[in-house]
Amino acid sequence: MSRVALVTGGSRGIGAAISTALKESGYTVAATYAGNDDAATQFTESTGIKTYKWNVADYEASKSGIEKVEAELGPIDVVVANAGITRDAPFHKMTPDQWNEVIGTNLTGVFNTIHPVWPGMRERKFGRIVVISSINGQKGQFAQVNYAATKAGDLGIVKSLAQEGARSNITANAICPGYIATDMVMAVPEKVRDSIISQIPTGRLGEPEEIARAVVFLVNDDAGFINGSTITANGAQHLV
Ligand code: CAA
């Protein structure tokens, strides 16, 4: 029986590449999405990966969604908390709504995704958790006080979970992608994006598949001693 992997925000961008790479590596994958039905339908048609719709910011929706996935596919052994949004604005213009939306999806959403699967992982003495953080959680970013706070928070989450899960053979690790060629980065004004690319020594944006490769590595059954770590994948833009 193949292991079941849950990828939040798994039908587009980095998440879609992760879902696909996990499927190609032999996992049974459930990809969640929040709103874009057309993209999800297209994704399922082209990959055969099942998609499930819920809002990760809502604990009850996450819990019942996860119950549905487990009823249909089996116990979830791998969780990739990838779903994330931006609401960029300089701090003096940032509204409480922009703050709360980003905290709800990117940070509380990680809690809501992992918490319902945690007891099962402890019982079965196996679990692999990967949280997709960001270069901007490591270095901060103009106009991203909200987003950077959540992505720095992800690192605290995995470092704490790593200690709690270690004796149950559960690992929790983070990946900090730099600027990757996805809709999220393409939404940045072109002039700003060009200036960002000029700061990347590799001279280009990253590809979603380059992040997916790191996920496949971290969730392997044999990766049990890699726990609480942060992998940076940013083309040498920011070295920690
Ligand atoms: N550093 C310093 N100053 C900056 C700056 C920067 N990085 N970016 C903009 N500014 C300055 C501008 O030059 C401008 O200054 P002046 O008023 O003196 O001209 C001021 O800040 C911005 O003022 P605006 O009124 O034009 O700002 P705005 O309210 O229209 O907001 C913005 C524009 C939201 C900041 C827009 O420039 C933007 O989206 N920037 C990109 C932010 C970014 O990098 N987001 C990352 C998204 S990708 C992602 O998040 C994925 C990941 O994990 C990597």
Ions, cofactors and other ligands present here are: acetoacetyl-coenzyme A
What is the count of β-strands? 7
Order of H and E elements: EHEHEHEHHEHHEHHHE
The CATH superfamily bears the name: NAD(P)-binding Rossmann-like Domain
CA(first)-CA(last) distance:
39 Å
Classify the helix fraction into a percent range: 40-55%
Family: Belongs to the short-chain dehydrogenases/reductases (SDR) family.
InterPro entries: Acetoacetyl-CoA_reductase (IPR011283), KR_dom (IPR057326), NAD(P)-bd_dom_sf (IPR036291), Sc_DH/Rdtase_CS (IPR020904), SDR (IPR050259), SDR_fam (IPR002347)
Keywords: Oxidoreductase
GO molecular function: acetoacetyl-CoA reductase activity
Question: How would you characterize the overall build of this protein?
Answer:
By secondary structure, this protein is an alpha/beta fold. The protein has one domain (4-180, 207-233): NAD(P)-binding Rossmann-like Domain (Rossmann fold). It is 48% helix and 16% strand. It is built from ten helices and seven strands. The chain has helices at residues 13-24, 37-47, 59-73, 96-114, 118-124, 135-139, 145-165, 183-186, 190-197, 208-219; strands spanning 4-7, 28-33, 50-53, 76-81, 127-132, 170-177, 230-233. The protein has a seven-stranded parallel beta sheet, with helices on both faces. Helix 2 links the parallel strand 2 and strand 3. Helix 1 crosses helix 10 and helix 3 (59-73) packs parallel to helix 4. The chain starts with a strand and ends in a 7-residue tail after the last strand. The mean pLDDT is 97.
